[in-house]
Amino acid sequence: MTDTRRRVKVYTLNEDRQWDDRGTGHVSSGYVERLKGTSLLVRAESDGSLLLESKINPNTAYQKQQDTLIVWSEAENYDLALSFQEKAGCDEIWEKICQVQGKDPSVDITQDVVDESEEERFDEMSSPGLELPPCELNRLEDLAELVASSLPSPLRREKLALAVENEGYIRKLLELFRVCEDLENREGLHHLYEIIKGIFLLNRTALFEVMFSDECIMDVIGCLEFDPALPQPRRHREFLTKTARFKEVIPISDPELRQKIHQTYRVQYIQDMVLPTPSVFEENMLSTLHSFIFFNKVEIVGMLQDDEKFLTDLFAQLTDEATDDDKRHELVNFLKEFCAFSQTLQPQNRDAFFKTLSNMGILPALEVILGMDDVQVRGAATDIFSYLVEYNPSMVREFVMQESQQNDDDILLINLIIEHMICDTDPELGGAVQLMGLLRTLVDPENMLATANKTEKTEFLSFFYKHCMHVLSAPLLANTTEEKPSKDDFQTSQLLALILELLTFCVEHHTYHIKNYIINKDILRRVLVLTASQHAFLALCALRFMRRIIGLKDEFYNRYIMRNFLFEPVIKAFLNNGSRYNLMNSAIIEMFEYVRVEDVKSLTAHIVENYWKALEDVDYVQTFKGLKLRYEQQRERQDNPKLDSMRSILRNHRFRRDARTLEDEEEMWFNTDEDDLEDGEAVVPPSDKMKSEEDLMEPITKFMERKKLKDTEEKEVLGKSSLSGRQNPSFKLSFSGSTKTSLSSPPSSASLNPGSPGSPGSPGSGARSSPSTTAVTTRGGLVGGLVDYPDDDDDEEEEEEDDGESKEDPLPPSKKSKLSS
C-alpha cells in the first residue's frame, strides 16, 4: 500500500458538472466474486476503507487524459475519474482495462457501440480507419459532413479523433481559417465553425491540448465566431485581446504558472461564452473540457501555494498602510479568486491551503480591509471571510478570542462584521443576510470543539456575550424604548427581523448565557414592543422569539414572563388583529394552545387570572375555554390535595415499582402474621402482576357476595348512615412501611365473621387484587377501583339515602388507632 505508483485521487462529476473529490487511496485490480468480473478497487490510505469498487465492463468507454487521468461513466450522468500520482501507475491500470476490453493500450479511449446494427458494426470494425479528405478550401463542405455524420456513432467518433490527431489536421484547418478570413470567404468560415465545434464534441484530451496551445487557441476562438445561425460574427478575440487585461497584482516569476493562468482563463471563456449551450445529447460529450479546466485550477493553486515569496509579498502589501486604495482593491479581488479556486482542492490540500493563509495572517489582513470605506473592497473581504468561516469556524473563533485580550471591543473582527451587518445600505440587505449567516455559523455550538483541556463552547460563548452581544442587540434596544417602535420603516424592520432571527437561534442553542442576558436586560419586553409594528413579518418574528422561550418550559423564563406581565402585548396584538384570519391570529392562538396542551401550570394560571375577561368571548377556537378548564382543574386539585395525592400515589405504585421494592413488599407480606391484620382490612399485595387471571377474578366475586350479604343484613347490624345529601366519599389511606398500602373501612357484619369471604384468614380473600382493579374501601363502605366512576358512586349513595339507615358503627380502639395513622 506504500507504492506511490498506485496512489490516486477519486473524483465524481456532480450535477453542476463540477468534479467532487472523494478521497485519496491506492488502486488495484482483481476479480470480485460479487460483481462477477475484474474490477477496479480503491482503498483509502487513511483507514483502508473502500472508496471505489467498479467492475471493468467490456462496453464502458474509458478515457486516458494528460498521462495521469482515467475518466469513465458508470451510468447516465455519473462520471468517475482517477487521478494518478505517477504516470507509471496510470499506464499499468490502463493496460489492465484495455486487456479486459480487448483493446490496444496505445489508444487513449475505449468506446462501446450503440444504436448500430451488427452488420454496420462489423463493417466499421473491419475497415482499417477513417480517411479524411484533403485539407483544402473546396473540400471543407465534405469534411463538415463527415464530422457531422461521425458524431452519433461512438466507433466512428473514435476513428475520426484518431485521424484528426495523427495527421496534424487541426493546424492545417487553422491555416485554412486564416486564408478564408483574409478572403472573407463566409461560406468556408461557416463550414470551419461546424468542423471545430464537432472536434470539441469528440471529447478528446489530446486534441484539446493542441487546440488550447498558445499558438492555436486564438484561431480556434476565431473559428467559433462565425456561427451560421447569426447574421454577424461575434467579436470574442477582440474582447480577449483588448478588453480583458491580465493584471499581475504581484509579479509572477514562473513562466509556466503564467502560461497556465492565461490558458485556463481562455478555456473557461470558450466554455462559458463561445461554445453554444450544449443540448441534452451533447452535454456529456464536453465532460473532458470540464475536467481540463478543473485540473488546471488545481495546478494553479498548488503552484501559487508553493511560491512562498509570492504569498509573503501579497499579505505584506495588503496590510501595509502605504498601499493605495486601487492597489489594495486589486489585491483583495485576487485573494478572493484565489480562495474560490481552492474549492477545487481535495480536503487534505484544502487544509494545507487554509493553514498557509492563516499563518500568513489572513485574518488580521481582513480586519484592516473591513475597516475601509470602499464598499466593493468590503464586499470582496466578506466573501473571503465566508470561505474561512465555512471551512474552519474554530480557527476564526480562536483568533477573535486572542484578539480580545489586546484590543478594545469596538475593533474586534466579529464586532466589525456585526457593524457592517447593521450599517448595510442595500435596501434589500443582501450583505446583511450573508453576514448574519456567518455569525450564526460562528455561534453555533454544533460545530464547536470539546477537548480534554478546554471546551470551546464555554469559552467562546462567554466571550461573545461579554464583548459582542451588546453590539448585536443595540439597534433592537434603541428602537423599542416606547410602546411602539420608534422607527418602523421597511429597511429598519428587515434589520430587526435579522437580529431577532439570530437571537431566536441563541435561545434554542445557548440556554444558560442567553437566559441570563434576556432576564437581566429585559430583552423579551423590548422584543414584544415590535408586535405593534406595521410590518407583519417583524411582529411575527417577535412572536416567534417568545414562542421559542415558552417552548423551553423553563420556570425561570416563566416567572420572568409572569412577573413582568409580558403576555399583555401579545393579548393586545391579538385583540387589535380582530377577527381577521391571518398568520398573526394563528401564531398567537398556537402559542396559547401550546400552553394548554403542555399543561404549563404557572402560565395557565397567570393567563386565566389576568386576561380571562379579554379572551372569554373568543369561541371560534376552544383554546381559551380549554385553558380555563385546565385552570379550574388545577384549582380543584389545590382545594382537595388528598384526592390529588392519592391519585399520584396509586399511579406511582402501579407504574413505578422496581424489582427491589417488590422483593421488600413480598418479604413484609409473608412476615406479617394473620392475627395482626384487623378484620375488614384490605391489604394490597405486591405481586399483583404475577397472579393468574382466575386469581384476579376471585376478589371481585367475593366482593359481590359480601355486598349481597351486607344488603340483607344492614338493617339489623348497621346504625344510621352518617352520609347525608350527595357528598363525595372521602378517601383515607394508611401506609405500612414505605410501600405497602392498606386501605381501611369500618367493619360490616360480613367482615366481622372470621370465616366470611372478606376475612383475611380465608382463602380467596380481598388480599388479592389485580393492578387494574385494585379495591379501595371508603369510609362509607363504598369500594372504588383505580379509575372511579362518579355516576356509580352517586347511585350507591342514593340507594343508601333511600334506605335511611346509618352505616357507621362506633369503632373499637384498635380500629381508631389504625385509621388515625
TrEMBL record:
Low complexity composition bias: residue spans: 730-756, 765-780
GO molecular-function terms, A-Z: protein phosphatase activator activity
Gene Ontology biological process: DNA damage response
Sequence similarity: Belongs to the SMEK family.
Protein name in the entry: Serine/threonine-protein phosphatase 4 regulatory subunit 3
Highest rank taxon of the organism: Eukaryota
InterPro entries: ARM-type_fold, EVH1_PP4R3, P4R3-like_central_dom, PH-like_dom_sf, PP4R3-like
Domain PP4R3 EVH1-like, residue spans: 5-101
Region entry Disordered, spans: 673-821
One GO cellular component term: nucleoplasm
Pfam families (alphabetical): EVH1_PP4R3, PP4R3
Biased composition (Acidic residues): 789-806
Annotated function: Regulatory subunit of serine/threonine-protein phosphatase 4.
Entry coiled-coil feature ranges: none
The Serine/threonine-protein phosphatase 4 regulatory subunit 3-like central domain, residue ranges: 143-633
Composition bias type Basic and acidic residues, residue spans: 703-718
